[in-house]
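Design request, tokens follow.
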């Protein structure tokens, strides 16, 4: 893609945007900047990668001390499996044959992640999880039915999960089926390309985009264009597929910050400047086992037309200059720390079309004093006579029949559209108010996916856990539901409490932003024997006063979590113990 790339967007009417302009700037936008480094040598700013035959490769002079994953990429370009149709040959080869050489094993376990395919070697050998690209979490009934048809054929091995990036992951996939699945995805307008490993993850936006009476800007055009740029319209974009590590992006369109900008590598924060609409920028937010960091201001503003060029410039700066040694120190924030925020900003500006980058605007459109709304339940849209209905999907897990029924309900009562959220729930938009009563009586809403879940259930998030994920230390989804049900029998809660469960320190379920978080670990029971446990986190916040939670208690055996959570809810969240019924154990 040329450096002069620019996309024309229609800016929102300033008449609706300007009343917000005088609001105090978003808290995160005034977070102290990363220190400015003045000692970066010119040699350090030499790009570490170069283009060869259409792909970006690490230069020989920078290959000392690189990690194992970088060596796998050097040995064979992962994107060739897709772009040069290597997947056809892999799909025809037996697993037994593929296991005979390190190269083909690396194809299975590493390179296929560039196609969104994750081999579950440890807990689901021979089966793959497939992660899609679903910008802004918007999908259709046709797409949902197709995904249901894929997982149905795998019986008990097949299921689907809503992820914490507004995305689908489907499970049970076997390698011989992949070429046909990829063709089917393309026919319904979906792709799984570049959704794993050292790639840009699903662009997140406001789940209420275009229908929210209070929205700042409709994020869907921006997230769609970002996804189209990143994957070159699902054909593959090798210019951004050899990053040092994974990379997350979001576009904020709500005062509620449903998009969680503070934990993204790049977040677009709506702001006007001299009568023009655009975005201030936050950079560097991430989670990892060894470090978690909130995004910091880049002190930069771009117009709506420069959303893609800016994304391209940031990605190329990270691709060119990011280190590739210890995987725990290769996320973009480590590069920002090394160069200093001004040094990093200069490298981004250097890669902009005219080598210029405007300073941040003081006219933030996100209101700081804003009570975060709940989208679960029935809510009026900005379109007269229409409502959206937010459904609670328990820990984000669905079966094929669930997906078919959701698609049917979306067709019958809405426009066939469904929206996934970062809290692993689903919204049905565009429901005529005259149809609401009938929709709420549907068995699917009565028995499976309630628009009126309990307070604790509606804030529950859980990663895959060790049922399928080889990195997870504990089982999460079923345990999260069981513990929450038991806690609800002990206390009554009157205000929202978000509880997140993650199976390991990779924190896919983002426990640090939860009110109460559970990170899987090994613990010891009262007899000193090893057992599944959790480090318990407390105090995470989302929204304009975002804050990462801290460890409250380490290595708690899972069987001891219920009384601990009850105690936390009473002491910190105003919960009231329930009176036991007479005769109840």
């Amino acid at each position: 893609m040329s450096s002069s790339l620019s996309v024309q967007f229609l800016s929102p009417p300033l008449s609706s945007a300007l009343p917000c302009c005088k609001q105090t700037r978003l808290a995160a936008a005034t977070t102290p900047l990363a220190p400015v480094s003045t000692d970066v040598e010119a040699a350090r700013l030499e790009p570490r990668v170069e283009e060869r035959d259409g792909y970006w490769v690490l230069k020989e002079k920078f290959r000392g001390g690189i990690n194992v994953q970088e060596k796998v990429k050097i040995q064979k370009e992962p994107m060739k499996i897709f772009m040069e149709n290597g997947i056809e040959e892999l799909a025809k080869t037996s697993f037994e044959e593929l296991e005979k050489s390190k190269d083909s094993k690396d194809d299975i376990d590493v390179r296929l992640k560039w196609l969104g395919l994750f081999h579950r070697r440890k807990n689901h050998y021979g089966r793959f999880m497939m992660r899609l690209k679903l910008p802004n979490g918007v999908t259709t009934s046709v797409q949902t039915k197709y995904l249901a048809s894929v997982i149905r054929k795998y019986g008990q091995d097949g299921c689907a999960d809503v992820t914490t990036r507004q995305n689908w992951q489907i499970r049970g996939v076997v390698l011989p089926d992949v070429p046909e699945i990829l063709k089917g995805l393309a026919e319904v307008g979906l792709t799984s390309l570049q959704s794993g490993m050292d790639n840009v993850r699903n662009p997140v936006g406001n789940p209420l985009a275009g229908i929210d009476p209070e929205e700042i800007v409709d994020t869907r055009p921006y997230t769609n264009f970002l996804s189209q740029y990143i994957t070159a319209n699902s054909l593959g974009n090798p210019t951004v597929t050899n990053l040092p590590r994974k990379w997350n992006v979001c576009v904020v369109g709500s005062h509620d910050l449903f998009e969680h900008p503070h934990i993204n590598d790049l977040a677009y924060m709506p702001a006007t400047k001299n009568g023009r609409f655009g975005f201030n920028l936050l950079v560097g937010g991430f989670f990892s086992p060894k470090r978690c960091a909130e995004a910091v201001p880049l002190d930069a503003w771009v117009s709506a037309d420069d959303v893609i060029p800016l994304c391209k410039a940031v990605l190329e700066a990270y691709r060119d200059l990011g280190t590739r040694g210890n995987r725990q120190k290769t996320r973009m924030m480590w590069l920002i720390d090394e160069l200093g925020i001004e040094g990093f900003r200069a490298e981004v500006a250097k890669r902009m079309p005219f080598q210029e980058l405007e300073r941040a605007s003081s006219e933030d459109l996100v209101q700081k004093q804003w009570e975060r709304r709940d989208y679960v339940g029935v809510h009026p849209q900005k379109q007269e006579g229409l409502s959206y209905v937010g459904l609670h999907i328990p820990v984000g897990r669905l079966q094929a029949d669930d997906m078919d029924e959701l698609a049917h309900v979306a067709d019958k009562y809405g426009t066939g559209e469904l929206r996934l959220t970062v809290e692993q729930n689903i919204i049905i938009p565009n429901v005529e108010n005259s149809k609401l009563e009938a929709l709420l009586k549907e068995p699917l809403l009565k028995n499976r996916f309630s628009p009126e879940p309990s307070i604790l259930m509606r804030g529950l998030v859980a990663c895959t856990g060790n049922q399928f994920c080889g990195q997870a230390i504990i089982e999460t989804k079923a345990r999260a539901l069981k513990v929450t049900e038991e806690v609800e029998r002990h206390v009554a809660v009157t205000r929202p409490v978000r509880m997140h469960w993650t199976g390991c320190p990779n924190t896919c379920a983002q426990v640090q932003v939860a009110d109460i978080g559970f990170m899987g670990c090994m613990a010891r029971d009262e007899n000193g024997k090893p057992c599944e446990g959790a480090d318990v986190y407390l105090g995470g916040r989302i929204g304009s006063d975002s804050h990462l939670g801290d460890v409250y208690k380490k290595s708690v055996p899972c069987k001891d979590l219920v009384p601990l959570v009850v105690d936390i809810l009473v002491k910190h969240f105003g919960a009231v113990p329930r009176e036991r019924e007479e005769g109840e154990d």
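Comment from the thread starter after seeing the answer: thanks! The first helix runs from residue 14 to 17.
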